[in-house]
Amino acid sequence: MNRPAMRRKSKRRRWLEPQSSISPRLYLALTLSSFALLLAVWSLLTYGGIVDKLFLPSPSKIVESGITLFTEFDFIQDILATVYRVLVGFVLAFLAGSALGVLIGTYKALEAFFEPMISFVRYMPVSAFIPLFILWIGVGDVEKISVIFFGSLFSIVLMTAVEVGGVRRELLEASYTLGSSPLGVLRSVILPASLPGMMEIARLVLGWAWTYIIVAELVAASTGIGHVIIESQRMLRTSNIIYGILTIGVLGLITDLILKRAIRGMFPWNYGR
Amino acid sequence: MQPKLEIRNVSKRFPGVKKKPDVLALDTVDLHIATNEFITVLGPSGCGKSTLLRIIAGLEEQSTGSVYLDGEEIDGPSADRGMVFQAYSLFPWLNVAENIEFGLKNKRIGARERKEIAAQYIDLVGLRGFENHYAKQLSGGMQQRVAIARALANDPEVLLLDEPFGALDNQTRTLMQEQLLEIWEKTNKTIVFITHDVEESIYLASRVLVMTSRPGKIKADIPIELEHPRSYQIKVDPRFLQYKERLTELIREESLKAIQE
C-alpha cells in the first residue's frame, strides 16, 4: 500500500510543490518574520556596535529623528509636496498615456506612426532630462511634475497598446455579428475588455513614479522628501536620510494597496467569484 | 423560389507565408440554402469549413465569388447573420442578461423591452436564475447556451454556428444538440452549423453538406429524411445508422487524403 504514505508525504511538503497554496496563518507568519528578521539584523549591527552609527543609525535613533522632522522641520509639508507632485504628474500621464495607448493598440496606422518613436524615446532616461527641463521650465513644481509625467507616459502608452492589442478576436467578431459599428466595438468591447489590465499597468507604473520623484527632488528643490534627503546628506544626518527613504516606501505601499483594493472592487468579473 | 442564402462561386486563397505557395482553402463553392433549413457542414479538420462560415458571416473576405442574403450581396458582418463561436466568445465583463441584450442595445431597443426579450431567451435556453452570473461562473455548456441565446435574441435572418459544441464533454454535447434542435423546431430559423462529428451532423440537419479536404469543395449534398420532432432515440434507428454509415465512408476518404498530404 503505497498510497497513504504518498499522501502524507505530499501534505507535509506542500510548500515544495510549485504554485500550491499554503495556509493563511503560515503566510502571515512568514510575512511578519521577514520584517522581524530585518529589524533583528539591523539591531544587532547597530546596538552591538558593529557598524559606525554615522553610517547606520540604530532603529531608535531613526524613530527619534522622525519625530524631530515632524515637530521641528514641518516634514508633513514635504510629504504633501511630494505626494502632490507624484499624483498630479502620474494622473496626467495616465490619462494621456492610456488614451494614446488605446488608439495605438486599436488602429494600425497610429501604431505605425507613434510606436517606433515612443519605443525610442522610452529608453532615454528621464532623469537625464532634468537639466533640460530646468532650463526650459524652471525649478518649480511644474518641472517636478514634468519629470513624473514624461517618466511615466511612454511606458503607459506602450503597455496599454499591448494590453489593448491582446483583446480576444472572438470578442470583436462576436460584437460585429451583433451589429456593432467599428466605433461601437472600440467603445463597448475593446475599452471594457482592457480596463482591468490598464489599471494593473497604472499600479505598476505608479511604483516607478515614486522613484522618479526623488530623483527630481534631489536636484534644485526647496521642498519635498527628496529635498529633505539631500539636505540631510549635507549635514551628515544619516538617520534623516533613512527616515525619508522609509517614508517613501510606506507611501508607495499605501498607494499600491489602495489601487489594488480599488481594482478588485471595480472588476468583480475579472477577479475571483 | 429565392433562396435565403446563396453562395455563388466562392473561393478563398490565403497568401503563402515565407515564400511558400498560396494555399487554396475553398474552391468554387456553390450553395443554395432555403428559408428554415438546418444545414450542417461536415468536413475533416482543415478543410475550410470554418472559412466558408466566416465568409458567410462577413468576417473573412472571399477571393472570388459572392454571397447573397435574400438576393442582396453581403459586404462585411452585420446583425442579420448571427454567429456562435466554438468557445469563449461571451463578453466577460457583462452578466448573462447583459450579454444577451448586447445586440438589442445596438439596435437601440429600449431598456424595458430589452429586459423582456432577454428574459424570454434566457428561458428558451433554460438559464433562468443565472441572469446575473458572469461567464467565469458558468460551465462550458452554459456559456454556449448564453452564446446561442445572445445570437437568437438579436433575431437574425440566419444563424451561423462554428462547431459550437466541439469543446464540450460528450454528455453535455448530446443535451445541447437536443436543445438546439428543439429551439430550431420552435423558432424556425435558417441555420448553418459546422461540425466534424458525423452523428451530430445527421441528428441536427435537414441537409448535410460534406466537404472535401483542402481545397474545400462540396463533395456531397444529402437531405436527411427523418421526421421531427426528433428525440435522441433516433440515433439508433436503422435509417439513422444508414446515413451514418454512408457519411462515415465519405468523410473517411477525405480524412485519409488529408493525412497522406
UniProtKB/TrEMBL annotation, chain B:
Gene Ontology MF term list: ABC-type quaternary ammonium compound transporting activity; ATP binding; ATP hydrolysis activity
Region forming the signal peptide: none
Subunit structure: The complex is composed of two ATP-binding proteins (OpuCA), two transmembrane proteins (OpuCB and OpuCD) and a solute-binding protein (OpuCC).
Oxidoreductase recorded as keyword: no
Keyword Hydrolase among UniProt keywords: no
Protein name: Carnitine transport ATP-binding protein OpuCA
Catalytic activity: a quaternary ammonium(out) + ATP + H2O = a quaternary ammonium(in) + ADP + phosphate + H(+)
Keywords per UniProt: ATP-binding, Nucleotide-binding, Transport
InterPro entries associated with the record: AAA+_ATPase, ABC_transporter-like_ATP-bd, ABC_transporter-like_CS, ABC_transporter_ATP-bind, P-loop_NTPase
EC number(s) per entry: 7.6.2.9
Record-annotated ABC transporter domain positions: 5-238
PANTHER family named among the record's database cross-references: ALIPHATIC SULFONATES IMPORT ATP-BINDING PROTEIN SSUB, TAURINE IMPORT ATP-BINDING PROTEIN-RELATED
